Amino acid sequence: MIIGGVISMKFHFKRPLITGMLAISMTALWNFSIGLEVALPIILLSAILTGISMEVFNVIWGTSMQTNIPEESYSRVVSYDVLGSFAIAPVGVALAGPLSEWIGTSHTLIVGGWIILIASLMPLLYKSVRNLRVQTL
Known about the structure:
By secondary structure, the protein is an all-alpha fold. The protein has one domain. Helices cover about 75% and strands about 5% of the residues. It has helices at about 15-25, 30-35, 40-70, 70-85, 90-105, 105-120, 125-130; strands spanning about 1-5, 5. It has a two-stranded antiparallel ribbon with strand order 1-2. The chain starts with a strand and ends in a 6-residue tail after the last helix. The relative contact order is 0.18.
């Protein structure tokens, strides 16, 4: 369906957080492709896939939060979510330089890819994450 020049697609996932966490785990491919020094077209493809995966995750995450958090708590929960998401970033940036000096840039990117992969898949160990369903409004 085209609405105002924008393509509108509706996807419904039975268990959205499984889809979202699997999507965000795909972002590790970009780190791996650069760290393993694969051909440029593959690096570019992994960058595109990373962008798509991040957007899929963001939509699913936002929708899951909006439909499962009571309205009176929503702004506070989102504030904590954003704080937690961005507060750790400077730590990673501060560690990346010394780590790349110590083990090399390629190895640092591969380690970062593994951290992304593990951190994004760990929530799936919780049954409540795996079984969360988006409530229809």
